[in-house]
Each structure stands twice: as structure tokens, then as C-alpha cells.
UniProtKB/TrEMBL annotation:
Its main location: cytoplasm. K(+) binds at D237, T239, A273, A276, G278. It comes from the Bacteria. GO terms for molecular function: ATP binding; metal ion binding; ribokinase activity. This is Ribokinase. Its EC number is 2.7.1.15.
Length: 295
């Protein structure tokens, strides 16, 4: 079982020739609504692979929240603990997308900011025993992530943290993380001392994702590099590759795969996720991951 404690966003993607400057008004060439939020994307990735995935999160009591729930349920995610929240909008990301692929993003946390330690306790308490991996991101309050980490440790479950968007984390939280999955940029913000300092703080393993350069696994045993998988025809949109990576890693760990194998599967799924525009448009099935794996 993979339990995703995370965010749900309604993404409004606005296509423009260029990103407007302060005070400037430009006419956009298009508008797309997409399902987003790191948590939602991660849960969708794990469920598309065939995992038993439970989502713990909050949406507004609004049409966007209903649409977000329906999309996750369509992907097979159990949304019993996706709670409607009065008085807050569903999280929203306003994405300004330039012709050349540059973007500027404003995120309204909305209901995501209301996900509480009590919500997590209530959602995790009834879950039965074994082979559970909890996956969290930082688009929900850090106290809530901390509560999820504590609950996971208490019950002997795995805890994977995707530290995005990056922020400095309390040492007591780091000590509860089994696997941390920053990209290179997040690693820099999180830890001036790099991966070794995080291991020192008690993180079990740091898996640094490096886009088209693959991923590095850093543990007390040393460092192991995993090359990226080539994407046939080249990547179309790398948005959400990291979410597919973390969701897949949690799924593979919940299936009792050793970390090196799980990272290999995550690299394959991250590459496959870049085949189409949108974070959830090209998420891989287990058969697709299996068919491209090198080992
Ligand atoms: P994020 O989206 O969080 O910045 P990355 O860009 O590092 O994360 O992508 C996560 C993983 O997805 C990488 O480690 C890699 O395995 C895979 N990936 C991402 N971009 C590409 C790409 N252009 N080609 C092949 N694999 C990719």
C-alpha cells in the first residue's frame, strides 16, 4: 500500500508569447485546465502502475475539488481521506507558459494549507499492518508531514519525502526520512552540505534526481549512479517527471523491491512520463516500465 500525504491543485495553464512584466497586460493564445499538485501527480503515477494507493489531502468544497477527486478516482486512487474543506478554495496553480518553454508559476495553496496532523492521524489509524510506504511532499504544512513521518516510524512503515518545493527542514523530521528525493536544485536549497550532511542528519538514503542525467543514490554505503532512460523521439514535456519518479519509487518500495531496483524503475517511469504534455498525460503502466528496464 502506498499512502500519499500531499497536495492537489487545479492547474490553469496559460500559453503566451512571453511572460508579462509587472504592470503589463498581454493577450494569451490559450488556456488549459489540468489536474496537478505534486501529491496528486505522485498518487496518479503509483496508481497507474497498478498500486494500491490511498490519498490523504484536502480540496475545497467546490467544483475544482470535485473534479480533482474524480480524476484521482479514475486513475484508481482511493480518495476516502481526501477531505472537502469549507471556506478554502481547492489549491490552484496559475502557470504562465512561454512559447520557448520558459514558465512562471503562482501557487495558491488553498485547502492544501489546511491539511493537519489530525487529518493524517485519522487517515492512517485504520490502515492495516504491513508493506505500507508513506510518500509526502512539501506542498502541505511541514507539521503535517512531520506527523506522517512519526506515524510511519511508529508503525514500522517506510517514509519517502519528496522535499519540493524545497525549504529547510527540522532535524527531527530528517531523522525520520528513509528515502529523500530532491532534484539537484532542491538538494542545494535543502542542504548546503549536500547529500552527506543529510545522511549525517539521519536520512536513510538520498536519491538525487538530475533530469536527463538520471539519478544518484547516496547512502552510508556510498554513491551509485543510475543513467536516465532515453525517450524515443525525445522528451515532449518534462513537467511532473519528478512526481512520476517519487510515486514510482514509493510503489516499488511498497512491493519490497531493494532501493537500487526501485530507483531504476523510477528512472524508467520518469522518462516515460515525458512522452506527452502535462504531468499526468503519459504516466507509465507497470508493463511499460518492465518493457524498457535495463535490469
Ligand atoms: P523534477 O521534475 O523534480 O525536476 P527531474 O527533472 O530530475 O525531476 O526528473 C526526475 C527523473 O525523471 C530523472 O531522475 C530521470 O530519471 C527522469 N527524467 C527527467 N527528465 C528526463 C529526460 N529528459 N529524459 C530522460 N529521463 C528524464
Amino acid at each position: 500500500v502506498v499512502v500519499v500525504v500531499g497536495s492537489v491543485n487545479a492547474d490553469l495553464v496559460v500559453a503566451l508569447e512571453r511572460i508579462p512584466r509587472a504592470g503589463e497586460t498581454l493577450t494569451a493564445s490559450g488556456l488549459e485546465r489540468r489536474q496537478g499538485g505534486k501529491g496528486g501527480n505522485q498518487a496518479a503515477a503509483a496508481a497507474r502502475l497498478g498500486g494500491d494507493v490511498r490519498f490523504v489531502g484536502r480540496v475545497g468544497d467546490d467544483a475544482e475539488g470535485a473534479a480533482a477527486r474524480a480524476a484521482l478516482e479514475d486513475d484508481g486512487v482511493d480518495c476516502a481521506a481526501l477531505l472537502p474543506t469549507a471556506g478554502e478554495p481547492t489549491g490552484t496553480a496559475l502557470v504562465l507558459l512561454e512559447g520557448d518553454g520558459e514558465n512562471a508559476i503562482a501557487v495558491v495553496p488553498g485547502a492544501n494549507a489546511r491539511l493537519s496532523p489530525d487529518d493524517v492521524a485519522g487517515a492512517l489509524a485504520p490502515l492495516p499492518g504491513e508493506h505500507v510506504v508513506v510518500l509526502a511532499c512539501l506542498e502541505v504544512p511541514v507539521e503535517t508531514v512531520h506527523a506522517a513521518a512519526r506515524a510511519a516510524r511508529q508503525r514500522g512503515w517506510g517514509f519517502v519525502l519528496n522535499p519540493a518545493p524545497a525549504q529547510p527542514l527540522p532535524a527531527e523530521l530528517l531523522a525520520l526520512v528513509d528515502v529523500l528525493t530532491p532534484n539537484e536544485h532542491e538538494l542545494g536549497l535543502l542542504s548546503p552540505g549536500g547529500a552527506p550532511a543529510l545522511l549525517e542528519a539521519g536520512v536513510g538514503a538520498v536519491v538525487v534526481t538530475r533530469g536527463a542525467a538520471g539519478a544518484d543514490v547516496v547512502t552510508a554505503q556510498g554513491q551509485e549512479h543510475h543513467d536516465a532512460y532515453a525517450v524515443a523521439g525525445g522528451p515532449v514535456d518534462t513537467t511532473g517527471a519528478g512526481d512520476a519518479f517519487s510515486g514510482t519509487l514509493a510503489w516499488a518500495l511498497a512491493a519490497q523491491r531493494p532501493l537500487g531496483d526501485a530507483v531504476e524503475q523510477a528512472c524508467a517511469a520518469g522518462a516515460l512520463a515525458t512522452r506527452a504534455v502535462g504531468a499526468r498525460a503519459a504516466l507509465a503502466t507497470a508493463a511499460e516500465v518492465e518493457s524498457v528496464l535495463r535490469r
